[in-house]
Amino acid sequence: MDLLEEYIKEGRIKLNTHKYHEAYTVHDPCNYVRKSHMIFKDDNASKTRWISQQCIDPSLFREMCDDPLNNLCCGAGGGAWAMPYDAERLAYGKMKADQIKGTGAELVIAPCHNCRDQIMKGLGKEHKEGRMDMGNYQETLYLWELVANCLEFEPWSEAEQAKAKELRDAQFERDGIELEEEE
Hints:
mainly alpha; three-stranded parallel β-sheet; 49% helix
């Protein structure tokens, strides 16, 4: 999330904000939000929302609850997605499905792979087959997938290319990465 935020703010990537026109919401994963808040004092929730709102009109954003730290678990954590506990995982996930339904959102942005799979392949499948009601829900995207789908590809001027190389070199120096000399 930090890198996506950095690239967007510096203009290193350009985004098409008109690709999606659906109401959307953000799922706050347990590890990325609550656990990160406890350990690093940074819950990443504002970054996820900011990045999403650089891709889709902010007026279409629907919050799931009053505070991202209070957002509900999707039910896939702790290995539940990979284990043979489908009934339990889906029963627990019903609370997340109700939360999504309450937003009226069609699109859910999920930065975590377990959460994305649970919401899309678990809860979403139940929704499509009529066993669970998620309201207007249609699709779940990873945060990075949303950004990739919204990338603008236009040729860079020589000045933009030079600036990008300058930023790359500064980032590599900051991170201690050594490049081989170009021939």
